[in-house]
Specification:
The chain is of the alpha/beta class and 257 residues long. The chain has 2 domains: 123 residues, no CATH class; 121 residues, no CATH class. It contains 8 helices and 8 strands; from the N terminus they run E-H-E-E-H-H-H-H-E-E-H-E-E-E-H-H. Strands 4-5-6-7-8 form a 5-stranded mixed β-sheet, covered by helices on one side. Helix 5 runs parallel beside helix 6. The longest helix has 23 residues. The protein starts with a strand and ends in a 15-residue tail after the last helix.
Length: 257
């Protein structure tokens, strides 16, 4: 029997639509792939799946009867990991969930359940790091701008945190790797795409784009960071464990004054 490759649009609803298609057509050998990922299935039959919200909702509603609330979150978190082949691990997870009469997300004896829990934990850790390490800079348009470059697609997960915490100011958080961002206009949060100048350096605070007082704010923050740092108690190994070096280039306290 020939394998069928289901190609979806990269959205969670698109993935759930592909899951619906799998069950609707009783497919056994199936490979679900993001259309933006490299397609290397030479000997499979390709099918482009149309994202249909009603079908996606039917799958998601059915899954919620088979999973605890934590299990539902784990599925979504794992999807946002963008790991190669995660869609097929999720499909196996879904098939197992629908085959049982009890909630399965704690059944770590099943390899897909365990794998999804492990991936979700990694994504959750990255989410908390982004909430802690985001550094806003004031632009000349009076918008607080921050750029991030997370390992996983955590922007959808941190939206509520920043809307609640910074409800009284306009802000934008831009994911450099995925080339999209969140913009809060004091009312709602929208997903945005932007074209930055070719010479734009996300690690620098360029006076062409950022407000003059931003440089004073950064200097104050760097001075505070130095003043509270007790050299005799410095533990770089512990520090790197809590603040991995890959984040340093975007932290104002790590920049030279």
């Amino acid at each position: 029997m020939q394998e069928k490759c289901l190609i979806y649009d990269g959205t969670f609803d698109g993935f759930l639509s592909a899951v619906f298609y799998t069950f609707e057509h009783k497919l056994e050998l199936v490979n679900i792939q993001n259309e933006f990922a490299p397609q290397n299935e030479l000997f499979s039959e390709n099918e482009h799946i149309l994202t249909e919200e009603d079908k996606a909702n039917r799958v998601w509603s059915g899954l919620k009867t088979k999973l605890t609330s934590q299990g539902s979150y784990q599925m979504y978190y794992a999807f946002l990991s963008e790991k190669d082949g995660v869609e097929n691990v999720l499909l196996d997870y879904v098939r197992y969930a629908f085959s049982k009469n009890t909630k399965v997300d704690k059944d770590y004896s099943h390899p897909s359940v365990l794998k999804i829990a492990q991936i979700a934990k990694m994504v959750g850790r990255e989410k908390h790091r982004m909430e802690a390490f985001v550094r806003f800079r004031l632009t000349k348009d009076h918008i607080y701008f921050a750029n991030i470059e997370p390992d996983f697609n955590v922007l959808p997960l941190i939206q509520k945190h920043f809307k609640r915490r910074y409800a009284d100011q306009k802000w934008m958080i831009y994911d450099i790797r995925r080339r999209y961002g969140l913009f809060y206009d004091l009312d709602k949060v929208d997903i945005i795409n932007m074209d930055f100048p070719k010479q734009f350096d996300f690690t620098k605070t360029n006076s062409d784009y950022f407000a003059e007082q931003e440089f004073d704010f950064q200097k104050l923050w760097q001075d505070y960071f130095k003043a509270t740092n007790i050299k005799s108690r410095k533990n770089m190994k512990l520090h790197v464990r809590h603040v991995p070096k890959r984040y340093w280039k975007y932290l104002s306290e790590k920049q030279s004054t």
